[in-house]
Design a protein that fits this description.
Helices cover 48% and strands 14% of the residues. By secondary structure, it is α/β, with parallel strands linked by helices. It has 3 domains: 3-201, no CATH class; 205-364, no CATH class; 368-558, no CATH class. The strands form 3 sheets. It has a 7-stranded mixed sheet with strand order 8-9-5-6-11-7-10. Strands 1-2-3-4 form a 4-stranded mixed sheet. A two-stranded parallel sheet has the order 12-13. Helix 6 links the parallel strand 3 and strand 4. Helix 1 (3-24) crosses helix 2 (38-58) and helix 16 (422-430) crosses helix 20 (490-506). 41% of the residues are buried.
Length: 560
């Protein structure tokens, strides 16, 4: 590195420090503890503010959220900030290294302490060592129960040097370990380059300005200016890579997180790219201004538009799913998506709120809507009425109380776990809508057909509820990995319990008496399972392990 570039790095670092004060002076307060001079106070402020800045870049947090996420202290276990995005189902864990001299490098022991702190959080190992993180414990434990939760590991530093080979190796080894049975954690390095862009824009969504190309475009001038056309899927992916969640700041349902419809979007993009425009609902965005560049004149075959302060208000699932498909290696060159951009110039007060709300509450179909059209569902409902029960299977139906009836979701989980096929139990855990997508063929027809009776489903649901209650009560008494296994293995254990009781249910065995035996069965299955998990997969995160059919098959053979 030349002397000039070294000086440039120090100048940029000092510029960022100034902007950190502008953004966070009123939000991050550093107490001057005994022995701390003004230099030490400033160092601590910049360390904390830099951690918060990284969250502004990588998450949906605003400045206040980012400041409140700071955990930097004597008992932080190497983690300087924790931010939990319940909307995105993401847990952000940040380590911040603000160096007064940017020519210094980050040391291996600094990274490994942070890595080990992350490990302890994921294993729910709460003690004095990480007591500064305990205020986030409830939210972390709640999200870790969700199989779609993602962990975002952010290592922020202002060193002009790249991370050492030893740190890269330690990082890659840990990611390989934690992602062994499925994607759980991702790692981001937040450097001077990203920090400068973030500090300049403060990551506000209104600062996202784009130039984009639309094919077969059209223009609506009145009452409010709007344009529409087909945009390349690769261009949408580039938006996500550049702006991440900020692109969706005004989208009510976000969609950046994993979703039950995203597999279908990715499948179409990968297998039928030329059909994507026909099969997909498209994307809607709002902006402050939109202007067409002179190139191409009025020819509508293609046009380039400059868009100021853009925010996607509908279609976040489409964009994020395309981004994931590209990351997984799909070729998106032939994918085009219908895009509609509405300019807010000249619109009445609250128009942006109204148009966002309307675009997120109308014409929203999901796989459960197709289930409602299956005649077997109405037959089951009528049979349930004859039994004095309520069975609901349409969206909008009010769920019955547990003693008065059951829902199609409960029935699906119970039927899948009682099917004798572990793959269906795994689907019920990780992607229940996949069991509903096509009511004309398996797996749906294996669960719901002319031989599926309301009586059998009701009895199976009662077993399901008994297993859930037993596991919930057990989880309350457990800590760490053992508790995570109790949470994430619920469908696996239900599957194993059904192996024991299925014949008795079908033979008309007294269900009340059978339910009383469930806690003992759960205790036995869980005891065997936890020992096997610790023996076979000691480094595997339970949330990923119980999404993996192959690994569960190994466990299923051994659990009696």
């Amino acid at each position: 590195m030349t002397e000039g570039s070294k000086q440039q790095a120090q100048i940029v670092s000092e510029q960022i420090a100034g902007r950190l004060h502008q953004i966070f002076d009123d939000l991050i307060v550093v107490e001057k503890l005994g022995g701390m001079d003004d230099v030490a106070v400033e160092q601590r402020f910049l360390t904390r503010a830099f951690a918060a800045l990284s969250l502004l870049n990588h998450s949906d947090a605003n400045a206040s959220d980012a400041a409140e996420s700071i955990t930097d202290g004597s008992n932080d276990d190497g983690i300087d900030a924790v931010y939990v995005s319940e909307a995105h189902k993401k847990i952000y864990l940040v380590q911040s290294k603000w160096l007064g001299n940017t020519q210094k490098g980050v040391q291996l022991h600094e990274f490994t302490r942070y890595r080990d702190g992350v490990k302890r959080v994921l294993n729910l190992a709460w003690d004095e060592k990480n007591s500064d993180l305990h205020k986030h414990r409830a939210k972390i434990e709640f999200l870790l129960k969700d199989i779609d939760t993602e962990i975002v590991i952010i290592f922020a530093h202002n060193s002009e040097h790249e991370l050492s080979e030893d740190i890269i190796r330690a990082k890659d080894e840990y990611l390989g370990e934690v992602n062994k049975y499925g994607d759980l954690a991702s790692f981001f390095e937040f450097t001077l380059r990203e920090a400068r862009e973030t500090a300049r824009s403060r990551t506000r969504p209104e600062n996202i300005n784009l130039s984009l190309m639309l094919k077969n475009w059209g223009l609506i001038e009145r009452p409010y200016k709007s344009v529409y056309g087909a945009i390349a899927g690769t261009e949408l992916v580039a938006w996500v890579q550049a702006h991440r969640e900020r692109l969706f700041a005004e989208n009510l349902r976000f969609g950046i997180e994993k979703s039950e419809v995203n597999d279908g979007i990715r499948q179409t993009a990968g297998e039928e790219p030329t059909h994507f425009w026909y099969f997909n609902n498209g994307v809607t965005a709002i902006c402050d201004e939109i202007d067409k560049q002179p190139v191409g004149g009025n020819n509508t075959d293609s046009g380039v538009f400059d868009v100021k302060k853009i925010s996607v208000i509908n279609g976040a699932q489409t964009i994020s799913s395309l981004s994931r498909a590209a990351h997984e290696g799909a070729n998106l060159n032939d994918v085009f998506v219908h895009l509609r951009i509405i300019s807010l110039a000249g619109t009445p007060d609250n128009f942006s709120t109204d148009v966002t709300t309307a675009n997120n509450t109308q014409n929203d179909l999901s796989p459960i809507d197709f289930v409602a059209a299956d005649p077997n569902q109405d037959r089951i409902r009528r049979e349930a009425i004859q039994m004095g029960l309520v069975y609901t299977y349409r969206r909008g139906d009010q769920d019955p109380s547990p003693e008065s009836g059951f829902t199609v979701r409960e029935a699906t989980i119970a039927a899948a776990c009682a099917s004798g096929e572990l793959r269906l139990a795994v689907s019920a855990k990780r992607y229940i809508s996949g069991l509903w997508e096509n009511t004309k063929k398996e797996p749906y027809t294996k669960l719901f057909n002319e031989n599926t009776s309301a009586e059998w489903l009701w009895n199976a649901v009662r077993i399901e509820r008994a297993v859930d209650i037993a596991l919930e009560e057990k989880a309350k008494l457990l800590e760490g990995r053992e508790r995570l296994v109790a949470v994430h293995a619920n469908r696996f254990i239900l599957f194993k319990v059904f192996e024991d009781v299925n014949e008795q249910i079908r033979a008309g065995y007294n269900i009340e008496e059978l339910v009383t035996k469930i806690p003992a069965l759960v205790q036995s299955k869980f005891g065997q399972l936890y020992k096997l998990v610790e023996d076979k997969f000691p480094d595997g995160y339970p949330g990923n392990l119980f999404k993996n059919t192959e690994r569960q098959s190994e466990l299923s053979i051994a659990v009696k």
